[in-house]
Predict the structure.
Amino acid sequence: MNAWGGRGVLALVAAWLVISLALAAAHLYVGHLLELGLLADLLTHATVLFAGGVVAIVAIAIWRRRAQRAEARRREVESHLRRAERLEAVGTLAGGIAHDFNNALFVISGYTEMALEHAAPGSTLRSDLEEVLASARRSRDLVRQLLAFARGSSGERVALQAGSVIKEVVKLMRAGLPPSIELVSTVDDGGLRVYAQPTEVHQIATHLCTNAAQAMEAGGGRIEVDLRAVEIGPQGDAVALAPGEYLRLTVSDTGPGIERSLLERVFEPFFTTRAPGAGTGMGLSVVHGIAARLGGAVTVDSAPGEGATFTVYLPASREIRPEGEGAAGPVPRGEGRILFVDDDRALVTMVSRILEELGFEVDGVTDAAEALGRFRVDLGGCRIMISDVVMPGMGGCELAADMRRRRPELPVILCTGHGSAAAGSVDREEFPFLLVKPFGIRELRRVMGQAIGPAAGGRDSSGAK
């Protein structure tokens, strides 16, 4: 007998004795008043003992059920706490990985962009370099998605090529599906882009695919993911949206389907048709909320035995450019001496070359204390300082603040490889210019023009000669 069984038996006996004695005392008192005979006395004594046992058993059953519920709740809370601790650990680990990985990506994309400046238009070399740069940008977006998931930060909305995000989700989902579930996809965004956070599109696709997979986990089936450009006319095309161009994401499954009476409730928070503990009922409500925030809509079409089809419409445009990409043509040149500080030597070498090719004189340093020493020797010789935020010993904010005490008007650009979440540790009023690695040459040049422009005494903000 286990410990729980032993405690239960003891509690049952104790409760039976207490209740029986209480009932017996009441019986003796009533019997004395009514002067019952011996036979009636024995019968009522037996009834008292039986009733006491029944009441004790019922009391113990109720107590045990409540104890089991309390234990289950305690275990559930412990599970949530452990999950929160794991996510916090993932966030810390992801931050460290992101810093080093983004530095490596920055070196790759930087040298690739420099090579593209010298590659002949239409050549095979240029095409290969553009593929390398596109892969580096996809890797950058993947790191940002990891940071956003782990830290709960969604970052800033950008002109996003949703097709690359959908392909990434399909790849990740396919790796985790059982062999009984087939996942196929068709992605044709027609050159349209949505103004959204990468994590928003990632969550929409992930929740819809996960919902479809869970619907078919018992018997298997097929999931179809389709992304394409559509144009909604004045009639609304079955959805209450303004006319215009949209990206339409459709996720269909061959699962058991949804009762017609439940279709209106599937997007309600915490509503789920799954067994207790098998789902939170939040996935589809998250999809609905994101689509609404982006100015789009989501619809569902299903019937019992016919599977389910979820369709998401997101406003799109051909005019907006993706983050980090500029117009074709040469990058504007500048002049003056730049102090660039980063603890990654390969990155310092690469950025120094970029800035030198843009016409600047560069003083590249890998140690903040050394950079401060050089600045003190020649306070007026530095036109602008660019520094990493996180460095051993002295960070970029501390270094910049020390320099500003000696030269308040010094333009400063801070860089970080920890993602957009690192902006929270930077005083944006004091240091408004923050670049998230890896960034492109044109983005660097644009921000430099913004930082130098106000302090250049009326010069052109591009810093051109």
Q: What stands out?
A: Confidence is low (pLDDT under 50) at residues 275-281, 322-329, 454-465.
